[in-house]
Amino acid sequence: MAPIAIPIHPSIKEADTVQPKKDTLGLPEAARARLEKAGIDLSNGYPYRPAKPLYIDDVYKIRNEDRPFTDPGSRADPEKKALLSAAKEVKHLTAHIGTEIVGLQLKDLTDQQKDELGLLIAERSVVFFRDQDLSPQDQKKLGEYYGEIEVHPQVPTVPGLPGVTVLWPALQAQEFPANFRNPGGASRWHTDLVHERQPAGVTHLHNDTIPSIGGDTLWASGYSAYEKLSPDFRKIIDGKEAVYRSAHPYLDRDNLTAGPKFIERTHPLVRVHPATGWKALWVNRAMTLRIVGLDKAESDVILNYLYDVYEKNVDIQVRFKWTPRTSALWDNSRITIHNASWDYEGKEPRHGTRVTSLAEKPYFDAKAPTRRQALGLAGPEE
């Protein structure tokens, strides 16, 4: 008989819910070396697994109040001189999205450079740094600079560091087996934490271990997806709200026979980034349920078209080839969707740690420009 899951209230401390699990997968050597160098205690197993909450009302209570937030990018020098002048090279990977900074260590950035990096991420959507000497503690400290760290109630984390989650496809495959026809990991277009009252801002993934072939990650620009729409179509969706759901389901304490339910939040379908002031399309196929005020058939037609615009226009996407000890920092929930390729099929290890900083409550401003309008790139039909 399977053990009975015990509901855990969010107020219970992490130490009270620890469920040690010995390392039976074989932690990749590069990951182990990084963790041991950082002084992470692996003696009780890796990773740390919090006891999963059972009831949906407990999860709603975790972060259910408005919290103050100021985007660091909004106070940055628009020219980003402190950051860019210190780099050996700045490489824009595509016209619309993706920049690589060469020659800087994230752990050594000054506050001024962190502000300017925040603005660069807001403008370019995702910024990459290779050859990083970065401990999980360094990663968490940087994340705290960009906002409140998201501590997930059930995702595996680095022992002793709540908020530093572990991305290890081999671990996930133990619970959700993957194959060529049904890839594992995050192999679908999505964005994270859209169900939060104040969803994700900057997410920082550091991969210490990557396969020799494959394992790329793709990002698409929400600014550009919105700009792909005709001005008349934009008028249809501007100001509309949609319902977004969580990735994980929970039980209704008052109606156990109803089956698992997802956390749901209502947010604008088009939102404005506080650091740039630009409009972005804010949908993703995995977690956007419906447009408020429309019949299901109407909502499905519009949403499916918007998903296609986001996912199928390769000119607004970037595909990044990882190397060991590389960091990607992207504006996760606000202006991008992403997709992790599982073309290596689990034949080689992939391991990384991730920190997500929560941002503002999503908002829409009808007077806000598109990115192309703000940069003087828009033609007369835009």
Automatic annotation (TrEMBL):
<dbReference type="GO" id="GO:0016706">
    <property type="term" value="F:2-oxoglutarate-dependent dioxygenase activity"/>
</dbReference>
<keyword id="KW-0560">Oxidoreductase</keyword>
<keyword id="KW-0408">Iron</keyword>
<keyword id="KW-0223">Dioxygenase</keyword>
<dbReference type="InterPro" id="IPR051323">
    <property type="entry name" value="AtsK-like"/>
</dbReference>
<dbReference type="InterPro" id="IPR042098">
    <property type="entry name" value="TauD-like_sf"/>
</dbReference>
<keyword id="KW-0479">Metal-binding</keyword>
<dbReference type="InterPro" id="IPR003819">
    <property type="entry name" value="TauD/TfdA-like"/>
</dbReference>
<feature type="domain" description="TauD/TfdA-like">
    <location>
        <begin position="89"/>
        <end position="356"/>
    </location>
</feature>
<dbReference type="GO" id="GO:0005737">
    <property type="term" value="C:cytoplasm"/>
</dbReference>
<dbReference type="Pfam" id="PF02668">
    <property type="entry name" value="TauD"/>
</dbReference>
<protein>
    <submittedName>
        <fullName>TauD-domain-containing protein</fullName>
    </submittedName>
</protein>
<dbReference type="GO" id="GO:0046872">
    <property type="term" value="F:metal ion binding"/>
</dbReference>
<comment type="similarity">
    <text>Belongs to the TfdA dioxygenase family.</text>
</comment>
